[in-house]
Write a structure and sequence with these properties.
Length: 176
C-alpha cells in the first residue's frame, strides 16, 4: 500500500524504449481522500494522462496533463468556490543512489533544474499527477463579490506581533 492518495506505480525497469502512457481516473474514494488531504470541500473529478519515457543514463522524463474539478471554501465568506484545474505535467527523475546534479552533468546539462531522485525501483505516476494537481489549487479562493468589511483589508490586530513591530519601528529615528 502506497502512502500517496493516488498511486499508480510503474516499475522503471519495465518502461520500454518508446515509453509508457497511463490514463489515471481517480475513484470516488481517492477523490474524497484528496479533498480531505488538501482541505477541499469536494473533488468532483480528477483525471490525468501521464507518459514516462526513458532517457540516457537512467533518467526518466514524465509528461502529461492533469484535469480536475474542485470545490473549496471562500477565504472571506466560506461560500463554496468551484475551480477547474487543467495543468501540464513535466518532471524528470534520476535513479536512486545518484546525485541529481551528477546525473544532469553526465547528461551534458546544467544543474539549474536537475532531475529529482527516484526513491526506489518504481515511479509513481499517480503521485506525480497529484503533485501537479496540488500545485494548481488556488490558495486564496474567493466567491464572486466576496470582500472584507470596510476598513479591515490590510488591517493588523493591535495585539499581534506585527503591530508591536510596527510600533517599535515608528519610534526609530528616520534614517532617510
Amino acid at each position: 500500500m502506497s502512502d500517496f492518495v493516488i498511486s499508480r506505480p510503474v516499475p522503471v525497469a519495465s518502461i520500454p524504449a518508446g515509453g509508457v502512457e497511463r490514463e489515471i481516473v481517480a475513484t470516488e474514494v481517492e477523490r474524497r481522500a484528496l479533498a480531505r488531504a488538501y482541505g477541499l470541500l469536494e473533488v468532483n473529478a480528477f483525471a490525468a494522462t501521464v507518459s514516462a519515457r526513458p532517457e540516457p543514463r537512467g533518467i526518466v522524463t514524465v509528461e502529461g496533463r492533469v484535469r480536475a474539478e474542485i470545490v473549496q471554501a471562500c477565504v472571506v465568506s466560506l461560500e463554496p468556490v468551484s475551480q477547474t484545474i487543467d495543468e501540464p505535467i513535466f518532471a524528470r527523475y534520476a535513479p536512486a543512489g545518484r546525485s541529481a546534479a551528477g546525473a544532469a552533468a553526465e547528461a551534458g546539462e546544467g544543474i539549474e533544474e536537475p532531475p529529482e531522485l527516484m526513491s526506489g525501483p518504481d515511479l509513481d505516476l499517480g503521485a506525480i499527477a497529484a503533485e501537479h494537481f496540488v500545485l494548481a489549487i488556488d490558495p486564496y479562493p474567493r466567491a464572486p463579490g466576496a470582500e472584507l468589511p470596510d476598513g479591515q483589508a490590510g488591517q493588523v490586530a493591535p495585539d499581534s506581533p506585527f503591530a508591536k513591530l510596527a510600533a517599535l519601528r515608528a519610534r526609530l529615528p528616520d534614517r532617510g
